[in-house]
Amino acid sequence: MTHKIMPAVGLAQGILLLVDYSIKVLQKQTIIFTPADANASPAEQNAHVLQVIVDTLFRLTDAIEQAELKRLGEGSKSKLSEPAQNLLKISSEAQELTAPLIEALLQTQKKGSFGDPRWSTAREALCASGVWKERDVTGLKKKLRALRREVDVALLLALRQYLDQSAETGLPVFSETGPHTPHWEKWQNEALDAVHANEWRPKSKKAVEEFSKQVDSLITAANEAHFCDRIFARLRFEELDDRLHSIAKPHDGTLEWVFHDQHTDEGGVLEWLGNQRGEHLFWVTGRPGAGKTTLLRYLFRNDRIFDYLEAWSGHTPGITSGFFFWNCGTDLQKSGLGLLRSLLYESLQDMIYGPLEEDMGILQRLFADRWEKFRSYGGGLESLCYTELRRAFELMISDASKKFLFMVDGLDEIDEAGDLVDVVPLLINASKKENVKILVSSRPSPAFQEAFEKRPRLWVDDHTTNDIHKFILHHFSHDDSLLKLRGNAVVPEELSIVTLLSETSCGIFLWGMLATRFLLQELTGNDNFTTLQNRAEMLPSDLDELLSHILSNFEPADLETSAKISALIEAHGYSSLLPLSFALNTDEKTSLAAHRHPLKTAEVAQRIDDMRQILTYKCRNLFSIFDTQAPEEALPALDAPEKLKVTYAHRSVRAFFLSAPAVSKPSTDFDTTNAWAASHLLMLKALTPPPTSGQMRIWPYLASCLESGLLLSSTSGQQHITYLSSALDTALAHHTQSPTSSSSSSLASSKRPTSSYPSAPVVVTSDLPSFPAQDTKLTAPLDLAVLLNLQAYVAAKLPSADRKAVRHAMDYSAAMRRRIGLGGEEVWLGGREKGDERRGLVSLRAEYGKSRTEIDVLMEYYVQAVRWGKKAPVFEVGEMV
């Protein structure tokens, strides 16, 4: 069964996409698409369109270089089949033909200026600018079309040989297909079937012409799949599910009240799910800490609600998605932009890859302007703005053939008032549709009371007292200290304390949880139930006052630790557990002295255990650890420690820390910038390469180090060259280390006829700025420093640098900047737009954007072979450490 793309098909696809795209770029009829609504989707400037075309040509060229058959061809070509060798030759010809086109487009871009009349085609741009003449265009098109025919013949021969080998060995040829089957596997099956059924042979001109139509469908499918993948990549964000996973499961036996009769009767939330009275928005509310988020998380995709939903949806296909706003999270986790991206991503994933098996053409309809830009010149793949997302969302839910249930938690956690003004009307308007129901939650602030005044609602704290009683009773029953204290006797005072705590909580589950854990942790061997009851009676019923009371009982060292953790989270956002453990106990000097080596399993385990102890006992559960992995896919903590995150136990805890600096501010000698800088460097030094072929993630760790180093310099007034050197040296050591070579084999691959193709070695690449071409290969720390324009570092290193190394760094930087073009650095440095995952690299972006004139002059001086009698240009670096 062909569960893997045939090497010939993989390389042929790469060549076909490059050749087909190049031909379209040169055609008169390929009009550069201009959206009808300029406000919703503005037309692009000439320079941007040309940059997109150049980027696409580079991307398709890179795809050829990365094809499996290319890697196999690096060895002895005599082991390869005739069609494989032909495809390798054709791929080189295709790259040679398109290289002048790329150069011509870049020259055309340079000749243009802002405000020029928009070109209607790329062909017009090339000829009107005088860079090319019409004969240059037609000549290249003719050569590309001839190359396309050669690809068709070579690919047909490869498939024919595959079928003949399969017949000889008796092995199956075709694989089963489904919604998750990649486009190439579907095409591979269809093509093999067509070649077999029609007995196509490469020597038959008619057969090649018929097969060429089959090949056209591969190009179409590949382009559609790429558009689909990129749109999904623009919708999804790395931390999309983090908030969902941070919400603790309800305590055993709690929240069952939501399924009791009063909630299945008219007015209850379950009855609302199934009714058809036109009440399509339900509001869950309650005071801070009551358990609104826990309730919505409990209901979200809970199998027990589906019967009620079906009473409303009937036989109409149903789509359920949700979003949990998080004030402690990133920009996207507390904004309308994040809401729309999440709802669209989850809904469309469900439609296309779920039981509905919707055609991916739905993305082309929802993002029609984007699709037309993509078809026109490869555009339309940049970041999605709020207006586009809202329009796509409204278009999606306008499909009355589907029913949508959206659960949106924590409207009060939206960060900006402007977002709130947009989001509430968006949800209300969506709920006016007969095929949409929305379950929302928020605190009962006046704005929400007014917005949801006439909607059915549920006050959570009216129903939680019994649940709180169960929680407290369970923890009292299972506490070792109380077990020793009570022995085998039934102690009335204990039940009295449980009742007192549950009643004092007034339905606020967070109060009950914090109070219970605080009392139990404060127990000593000299205490008795009378002492415990006295302490319980002293607990204030107000949540903020309870937090103040808990902190007042901290030891000074524990209070300092809690304050440091709060400060570190505020400076960095919720962090992975290991980096936080480093930041808590490490400084810059220690991180510089550390060696580059992966953390041992025992050390990871110890750090995880130590942090759990700190957060539970020293910080009295005011912070929590959660796993960002989906439970059904979760790896053990030691195998994926980066998935363990630390945050506040609740938004109310965070608010208290921020509002009470007198008790929650760390000592003046604790510097979060220094602490995080040390942590980032230690994490970079501890990276482990992947055990099999794949990409090693280095850049996020290096970028954090470089950003920290620049921040240290700006706050201290000293250039932290030693720190930057350590970070760059470590990253390049990871990048250039020799990958482990071994033959790739699997049960699936061993059962298919692959005698024409030798096994490929294991290849480990990195995500540092680099491309396959020789002039864009990263080889030394100075290369990266020159590209990123780290001027102080470069100036400090030049006097002792080898002249050839300086020249390579200059050439690499120039080639990379030519390769990525206008705005291309955002792949690594991010943009300034809200929601950009690398938006935090402010200092690094600013450094990259500085004028390079002075540093270029300095590098030109140090690259000279003879410098006698010449004075080095002056470049002020300042004090270095």
UniProtKB/TrEMBL annotation:
Region (Disordered): 735-759
Biased composition (Low complexity): 738-756
Short name of one Pfam family: NPHP3_N
Protein's UniProt keywords contain Isomerase: no
Positions of the Nephrocystin 3-like N-terminal domain: 253-443
Protein name per Swiss-Prot or TrEMBL: Nephrocystin 3-like N-terminal domain-containing protein
Organism lineage string: Eukaryota, Fungi, Dikarya, Ascomycota, Pezizomycotina
Highest taxon above the source species: Eukaryota
Keywords: Repeat
